[in-house]
Fold this protein.
Amino acid sequence: MTPKQVVLALGCSLGFSVGQIFFKLAARGMRSDNLPLGALRSLTDPCLIVGLALYGGITLLWLTLLRSVPLSRVYPYAALAFVLVPFFSWLLFGERIGPTYVLGVALIVAGVIVSGL
């Protein structure tokens, strides 16, 4: 992969991760007392709209990347979302991340590095 393709792949992973944070924010705003109606109301939630728009834009970028890079070469970068989303969850929502999860994240990062060689 060229340096530009690597940057695009990293950008996609970051974009999908940020989208997940917006989905979490939208989910936190949903009321569970009337789930069907609450789900319909959530369609106007700004966080959900931003998350969906971000996912749509990043998907178009991902498709552009796939035109020139084999899926088997670029897909490991998608695994970085398993690193970024928990980090953002810890940073923004105070979610706990245990030592075994940190070990797993380190193995994912090592796998992305090895697969990129």
